Amino acid sequence: MQSFSELTALLESKGIKPSLQRLLLLDYMYHCHEHPTVEKIYADLAAQGHALSKATVYNALTLFVQKGILRIVHLDNSEARYDILTNDHGHFVCECCGAIYDEPVDFDQLNLQFPEAGSIRQRDIFYRGVCKRCKDKG
Ligand SMILES: [Zn+2]
Ligand SMILES: [Zn+2]
């Protein structure tokens, strides 16, 4: 999706020093649409021959989230998952295959009321069930 020079420009525009490790991580995130956990990111990068430490991966992810390049989503459990899509969108979780799908949700049309909210940082919504792919197999 993005070349390394584009990723470099993105990091620099956010005031992040574009080290090779950060570029590898960002490149991985642009290609992974599974909302991976830090464990999965670490394992996949290691499998690709990139020996980043878990602390390096975690620290870079945290920095990317702070700078608005990634978003954290919490679904079923407390484990943080990282999402390259930073606009508001919904998730559909398949209880059959475990896939997490990005779904377009028009939050403004939902007209949900949160009278106690002082300010809202992120809007999340997720539905669970069986995805089309699993259902068609079924
Ligand atoms: Zn499924
Ligand atoms: Zn998502």
Strand and helix layout:
Layout: H1 4-13, H2 20-31, H3 38-47, H4 54-66, E1 71-74, E2 80-83, E3 90-94, E4 100-103, H5 107-110, E5 126-129, H6 132-137
Parallel strand pairs: 3-5
Antiparallel strand pairs: 1-2, 3-4
The structure holds zinc ion (ZN) (2 copies).
One zinc ion (ZN) binds next to helix 6.
Question: Explain this structure to me?
Answer:
The protein is of the alpha+beta class and 138 residues long. The protein folds into two domains: 4-83, Winged helix-like DNA-binding domain superfamily/Winged helix DNA-binding domain (Arc Repressor Mutant, subunit A), CATH 1.10.10.10; 90-137, Dna Ligase, domain 1 (2-Layer Sandwich). It has helices at residues 4-13, 20-31, 38-47, 54-66, 107-110, 132-137, and strands at 71-74, 80-83, 90-94, 100-103, 126-129. Strand 1 (71-74) and strand 2 (80-83) form a beta hairpin. The radius of gyration is 17 Å and the shape is globular. Residues 35, 83, 85, 89, 91, 102 line the site of one zinc ion (ZN). One zinc ion (ZN) is lined by residues 94, 96-97, 99, 131, 133-134.
